[in-house]
Amino acid sequence: xxxxxxxxxxxxxxxxxxxxxxxxxxxxxxxxxxxxxxxxxxxxxxxxxxxxxxxxxxxxxxxxxxxxxxxxxxxxxxxxxxxxxxxxxxxxxxxxxxxxxxxxxxxxxxxxxxxxxxxxxxxxxxxxxxxxxxxxxxxxxxxxxxxxxxxxxxxxxxxxxxxxxxxxxxxxxxxxxxxxxxxxxxxxxxxxxxxxxxxxxxxxxxxxxxxxxxxxxxxxxxxxxxxxxxxxxxxxxxxxxxxxxxxxxxxxxxxxxxxxxxxxxxxxxxxxxxxxxxxxxxxxxxxxxxxxxxxxxxxxxxxxxxxxxxxxxxxxxxxxxxxxxxxxxxxxxxxxxxxxxxxxxxxxxxxxxxxxxxxxxxxxxxxxxxxxxxxxxxx
Length: 379
Hints:
The chain is an all-alpha fold. The chain has one domain. It contains 15 helices and 4 strands. Strands 1-4 form a two-stranded antiparallel sheet. Strands 2-3 form a two-stranded antiparallel ribbon. Strand 2 (197-198) and strand 3 form a beta hairpin. The radius of gyration is 22 Å and the shape is globular.
């Protein structure tokens, strides 16, 4: 009964119900406008736009994962792009093994880039990725294992604050340099691309793109509910206590590093899932996803939307990436300057993000209504 109440607790929150309702309505609306409205109509949503929305939802799940550790645990991770990219590479390896003719035993032949580099056999770590179940499992286990090893060493050594942020950034930078090497067996600087099908479905068809969009929405809803269940439980209260007063929480007898490690691993696995959903929708995964700049950009999404709210991270991810899509189409070279300016504006004028601004306005409205009701009652 306790586990059931722990899992069902988020459904008792008004903010969670509103978030799920808005997400479900948006998914249904996009689906309806894509399938029911004929092409050429002003209200028709094209397959390209559906693909773009699916990418936004993948980014939103990544932002929720970062908000879980930054907003509720106080860990400013500047390396979550590494977990995102590892999940993406796991999915990319599966998609690459679906390309081309089958070998003698029904297994796909070597990927094209390995043939180009004169490799004569498949590396041991590529085995099993021709099976969807194994590949989808590695989407979660690969980033989770990396987070487990890194987090165990960092939290056991009590590395905190800016030092932990720098180490996470160094981690993703080191992985980026490693994946750029052809000897690693991941396609070098070109990465993995030219995907054809997933689970037997053509990736270029509009039906598959719509399915990936819906899968991204479902994953976002499940990830959001999981994070809400964590932060509203006793575990979440310990995490917040650790964020606000780590030394005092340790003094009370809590093994803080265990709580940090568990939440950090869960966050990494969610980031890996986001990467796996992102790759088939954009059609490529390369070492640039490990870029420290990308990880910093994720933090900006969360800061803009509102830290320690989860739904604010979703708002921030969608707003920034939509702005990026529009801005890079007009002035692509100026996007980084706009991103830097946006960070300054958020820091100065929106320290609690868009979600904090909305909460402040709702609170003022409730206070005004309460004051008006009190005056009427006294009159």
